[in-house]
Design goal:
Structural class: alpha/beta
Strand content: 5-15%
Helix content: 25-40%
Number of strands: 10
Largest sheet: 8 strands, parallel
Distance between the termini: 32 Å
Bound molecules: phosphoenolpyruvate, manganese (II) ion
């Protein structure tokens, strides 16, 4: 049975209304100049939403952990200037109050999908939530995690497939596009795809983005960096400006053939 997708409004734009949403930006906000430059660029090429991490949950405590609270003012400035909504990760329920005025959509990262206390807190607020799939979570567990937020009264939930850990090691994760088609058949929640974390390799981001559009995803979330080799996190999967431009150019005719269009800014 086909379920009608329940669109979610983020800023002034919708995800899940039939159009294809492009969310783009750096893995992490590195400085005002960096985030402003990337954001202006991705907007000029059709991104309707920004991404950019303030708090990063890294595997090693020695790795860059994000600018944290220092990035609040940067994020606000960039959103005001570009007039684009920001989706960024919340890593701790104690961040809720202050992040309310900084981000337009709270992202729950893969590592926190099972953090039910965080999900319950997010169920109490009136702000859209992007719930990423845990990298070892069944689709069923992921949907149940979404239900923690819905049960609290917050119905503005968007799911994000970001790859799962399998026996395959040639790519960072195995992007499970089955889940997108499956969720479309059982749930009303919009679902987007993150081929950056799903593959971990910039050369694979374009083909898997095209595949995401073909399978019926409501959008994609893409990491972009002006100089990927200098990125403070996830450089190997970041698209250069040229690669991002090429991706949008190739998505265009595919979406047309599918009878869809990009989410307008
Ligand atoms: C991210 O998108 O910034 C991120 C950390 O992704 P994930 O939680 O999917 O690893
Ligand atoms: Mn990243």
């Amino acid at each position: 049975m086909d379920h009608r997708t329940q669109a979610v409004k983020i800023g002034q734009s919708w995800i899940g209304d039939g159009r294809f949403a492009v969310i783009a930006g750096p893995c992490a906000i590195e400085s005002l100049e960096h985030f402003l430059e990337v954001s202006r660029f991705v907007k000029s090429r059709g991104a309707a939403f920004l991404r950019g991490g303030l708090f990063k949950l890294r595997t090693s405590p020695e790795s860059f952990q994000g600018l944290g609270e220092v990035a609040y003012a940067i994020a606000r400035k960039v959103c005001t200037e570009t007039r684009l909504p920001l989706m960024a990760e919340i890593t701790d329920p104690r961040q809720v109050d202050r992040l309310m005025d900084v981000v337009d959509c709270f992202q729950v990262g893969s590592r926190n999908m099972h953090n039910y206390e965080l999900l319950k807190e997010l169920g109490k607020i009136k702000k859209p939530i992007l719930l990423k799939r845990g990298f070892a979570a069944l689709v069923k567990e992921w949907i149940l995690a979404a239900e923690y937020i819905l049960k609290g009264g917050n119905e503005q939930v968007v799911l994000c497939e970001r790859g799962i850990r399998t026996f395959e090691t040639s790519t960072r994760n195995t992007l499970d596009l089955n889940s997108v088609a499956y969720i479309k058949s059982v749930s009303q929640l919009p679902v987007i795809v993150d081929p950056s974390h799903g593959t971990g390799l910039s050369s694979l981001v374009k083909p898997l983005s095209l595949a995401a559009a073909a399978v019926g995803a409501d959008g994609i979330m893409i990491e972009v960096h002006p100089r990927p080799t200098e990125a403070l996190s996830d450089g190997a999967q970041a698209l250069t400006y040229e690669q991002f431009e090429e991706l949008v150019d190739q998505l265009n005719p595919l979406l047309k053939a599918l009878g869809r269009e990009f989410t307008a800014v």
